[in-house]
User: Fold Uridylate kinase from Zeimonas arvi.
Amino acid sequence: MGRSTLTAVESLAARPEPLAAPIPHRRVLLKLSGEALMGDDAYGINRETIEAMVGEIASVVELGVELAIVIGGGNIFRGMAGGATGMDRATADYMGMLATVMNSLALQDALRQKGVVARVQSALKIEQVVEPYIRPKALRYLEEGKVVIFAAGTGNPFFTTDTAAALRGAEMGVEVVLKATKVDGVYTADPMKDPGATRYQRISFDEAIGRNLKVMDATAFALCRDQKLPIRVFSIFKEGALLRAVRGEDEGTLVHV
Ligand SMILES: Nc1ncnc2c1ncn2[C@@H]1O[C@H](COP(=O)(O)OP(=O)(O)O)[C@@H](O)[C@H]1O
Ligand SMILES: O=c1ccn([C@@H]2O[C@H](COP(=O)(O)OP(=O)(O)O)[C@@H](O)[C@H]2O)c(=O)[nH]1
Assistant:
């Protein structure tokens, strides 16, 4: 038996007994902001930010929660910025999707170093580098206790990784989409621009869409609303926030049907 198979089996065997307090979520999708992974750096992945996140992911996996991840690419390339400089928007968006593949591979490796088994599946075919997205295979990995990282967004230009998170979340049948981003929830206005903005504890999809709150794009909101898939928005920088979100505790903002 190959070493990688053993590791997967070992990690399954090492799953702890269910805790006395039941965990409300058995399968979740985590959306990690590419841009937030920069931390204070000018571009790329900040070592401390990714290490902190990987530590939190490891503790979620230890709980026995099945975890799928969609990672952004804004720390390397953002299609809109390319478009603004006169580049063809679709070409710029494909570059953005390739950036998410790089982030996914970096995250997979950071997880490996922490002893967490992860598989990357890409919406774009780059078979020498990463396996393609195959839904039943992804479901199988999750059932085996492996983390699945979905790379290349939806595989289509003019979309975002938030929409990819909603799409893959719905396909994987997760109970919640957890959006880890730069801000600690959904505010009445963009808190980066309006210091008077206040945070919602809970907000309905209809209200978030109606008020045009930009923390997530409208396509992602609409897809989650139609699929009755709640989203919890929380800070990527806050220690313990992911674990609290997975436990269904009051963290950030819950966007609900
Ligand atoms: N109403 C709002 N509440 C919270 N954040 C908002 C709101 N409107 C705009 N934002 C902005 O949305 C950003 C998160 O969206 P985005 O940049 O797409 O995140 P990500 O990189 O995580 O996909 C926040 O950094 C914040 O500045
Ligand atoms: O389905 C997708 C997902 C992403 N992108 C491109 O990839 C970039 C990076 O993704 P995103 O901006 O969502 O990342 P994040 O905000 O999390 O850093 C986007 O700007 C788009 O250009 C795309 O074209 N289609």
